[in-house]
TrEMBL record:
The keyword Transport applies. Belongs to the ABC transporter superfamily. It comes from the Bacteria. This is Putative oligopeptide/dipeptide ABC transporter, ATP-binding protein. One of its GO terms (biological process) is peptide transport. Keywords: ATP-binding, Nucleotide-binding, Transport. It comes from Streptomyces himastatinicus ATCC 53653.
């Protein structure tokens, strides 16, 4: 793992058990660098949340982690395998080093206790030496940091708007200054203006505090705007991975190309929205070949039978980008500078 990587997931596979098991995440790997925002995009049901929960060690039955490793690297270079952590060590890791903000987190605040009390619970559990006045001051400072009047420390969740509650949840996730924050559709339930305000806040906090973010949403245009790098998932696998700017300008995988055509232009240019015809495959089935082949305009002979692996694109085409597509496997064999 290079110096700037804080988290590295390798070969993660997750299955939801049942009469016909769902293979929701299929041999996925990614790296998260210090201070970066890594976006994970893909249609509903492609395995984004399952991947995030696997990395955060938050899966429960019927989900089963079939295999893989998740390595965390601290500032001294020491590595920890998250999948080997248990009990107190795992709980401590989850708040202090890595925290998670869910889509519905704002509804998970305890309705019968004040916001301040809920911060207090975090500090009492994880910072037992902190005294009461210090805990109180820290809760006020955290509220202030996410743009909420510190006096609201005495408020009950129902006295706050949805946007404010989501800000409280983000402040809680940052309470112990984690190095990694996983955000799963953190603003989807909010109206667009509030969404924008909160995203700006997250960007600012990341710049100030230096944490890394894994940001999950089906909203690709949003991700292209806020991500440093992007992983595009399809049917449980990452099909394209690289710098967000590069993917926006020159998507390599036909699925990414289709997704981009499904959204309005970022610059606001109006153009016809064209979705991708067909629907994703059933993840309960074995998927021989490329899982996108049936919907792909470019499918050719190997796509129906050989599963493409995520490989770096040919040198000179797109530095730092990988794609799982036979078109590019062919391109990789071409002399430098030649397009497929
Ligand atoms: N508790 C569960 N039991 C069985 N199957 C599940 C369960 N949760 C999710 N799945 C299945 O796992 C697959 C991946 O779901 P997941 O929620 O990870 O996708 P997602 O990309 O995050 O979608 P969304 O944006 O809708 O949350 C889907 O086929 C889904 O139906």
């Amino acid at each position: 793992m290079t110096d700037d990587v804080v988290l590295r997931a390798e070969h993660i596979s997750v299955t939801y058990e049942g009469e016909r098991p769902t293979h929701a995440v299929r041999d996925v790997g990614f790296e998260l660098r210090r201070g970066e925002l890594l976006g994970i995009a893909g249609e509903s049901g492609c395995g984004k949340s399952t991947l995030a929960y696997a990395v955060a060690r938050m899966l429960g039955p019927p989900a089963r982690l079939i295999g893989g490793r998740v390595l965390y690297r601290d500032r001294t270079g020491a590595e920890t395998d998250l999948l080997a952590l248990e009990g107190d060590a795992l709980r401590a890791f989850r708040w202090s080093r890595l925290s998670v903000v869910f889509q519905s987190a704002m509804n998970a605040l305890n309705p019968v206790t004040t916001v301040g009390r809920q911060f207090d619970d975090i500090f009492r559990a994880h910072r037992p030496r902190m005294r009461r006045p210090e805990r109180y001051e820290r809760a006020r400072a955290l509220l202030d940091m996410v743009g909420i009047d510190p006096a609201r420390v005495r408020a009950y969740p129902h006295e706050l708007s949805g946007g404010m509650r989501q800000r409280v949840v983000i402040a809680m996730a940052l309470a112990l200054e984690p190095e990694i924050v996983i955000m799963d559709e953190p603003t989807t339930a909010l109206d667009v203006v509030v969404q924008r305000e909160i995203l700006d806040e997250v960007q600012r906090l990341r710049d100030d505090l230096g944490f890394s973010v894994v940001f999950i949403t089906h909203d690709l245009s949003l991700l292209l705007e806020i991500s440093d790098r992007l992983a595009v998932m399809y049917a449980g696998s990452i099909v394209e991975y690289g710098p967000a700017e590069r993917i926006a300008a020159d998507p390599a995988h036909p699925y990414t190309q289709g997704l981009l055509r499904s959204f309005p232009d970022l610059a606001g240019e109006r153009r016809a929205l064209r979705g991708i015809p067909g629907s994703p495959p059933d993840l309960r089935d074995a998927l021989p070949g490329c899982p996108f082949a049936a919907r792909c305009d470019h499918a050719f002979e190997p796509c129906g039978t050989e599963t493409p692996t995520l490989v770096p694109l040919a040198p000179g085409l797109a530095p730092g980008t990988s794609a799982a597509c036979h078109l590019h496997a062919v391109a990789g064999l071409l002399p430098e500078g030649r397009q497929p």
